[in-house]
Design a protein that fits this description.
Strand content: 5-15%
Radius of gyration: 30 Å
Helix content: 40-55%
Number of domains: 2
Oligomer: single chain
Order of helices and strands: HHHHEEHEEEEHHHHEHH
Number of helices: 11
Shape: flat
């Protein structure tokens, strides 16, 4: 039996390119989204923002995780919130690193170094130069400017300067010498050099504030025994009492 094979040919269908999709219309970008690094509006810019700031401050001041000088102290927390807005840090970071010494707000030295390293103005962050590796007597902070690549040097700090200025003679309430210049001079040299550098080249970032160690040495009657010494009752304290009374009445 003979098999027959029928071959069928199929004509190739023409390939039609898909029609291009219409381009989406450009949506307007809000001002805040177009500038993500722009600081938020001040808490004191309007009554509405101030009311919201008070609510946030009241909640934070009731926390056990914040330092003593902020617990139940709504004005202090409000100021910390405003500084956090200005510096772009979290309120918790500000409250943990901003101390009040005899009524003078002061940054911790670690916070000053962190600000200078994160601000973007100095390539590679802050660096230190000492006269000796083993037993340094002087220290200078320096950095490279991001815009120009130029090296900028801070003032030189020395142990001789510390002795002449009386930084090495800080005592506590019992008269015992508690100055860290005696026990850890190398660290204190770096801390002081960083503080001097920050106030010279980035005073707007530090808001002109001193370090905690400087504030304690400027006001020798202040003692930092676990917590910062608070100033006597001031106008801010009276405002705090009024706000606390309003909160209790509510």
């Amino acid at each position: 039996m003979k098999k027959t094979t029928e071959s069928t040919t199929q004509e190739a269908l023409p390939i039609v390119a898909p029609a291009p999709l219409p381009e989406p219309e450009a949506l307007p970008i809000p001002a805040a989204a177009s500038a993500p690094n722009a600081p938020a509006p001040s808490l004191f810019a309007s009554l509405d923002s101030f009311e919201i700031g008070q609510r946030i401050a009241r909640a934070l001041s009731a926390s056990d995780l914040v330092p003593t000088q902020y617990r139940g102290n709504i004005p202090n927390v409000l100021i910390a919130l405003e500084i956090a807005r200005h510096t772009g840090c979290s309120p918790f970071f500000v409250m943990q690193n901003l101390h009040v010494i005899q009524g003078r707000p002061s940054w911790s030295a670690q916070a000053i170094i962190a600000f200078l390293n994160a601000c973007g103005r100095f390539r590679g962050g802050l660096r230190f130069e000492t006269d000796s590796e083993q037993n340094p007597q002087t220290c200078r902070a320096w950095a490279l400017e991001s815009a120009t690549g130029e090296r900028v040097n801070g003032p030189t700090v020395s142990l001789e300067m510390a002795r002449k200025e009386g930084w090495t003679n800080r005592t506590d309430k019992t008269g015992r010498n508690t100055s860290k210049w005696q026990s850890m001079p190398e660290v204190m040299l770096r801390y002081r050099a960083a503080s001097f550098f920050g106030r010279q080249y980035a005073p707007d970032i530090l808001l002109g504030m001193y370090s905690v160690e400087e504030a304690l040495e400027i006001a020798p009657s202040a003692h930092l025994n676990g917590e910062a010494a608070l100033a006597p009752e001031s106008g801010v304290d009276k405002v705090n009492q009024l706000l606390s009374a309003d909160a209790a009445a509510a």
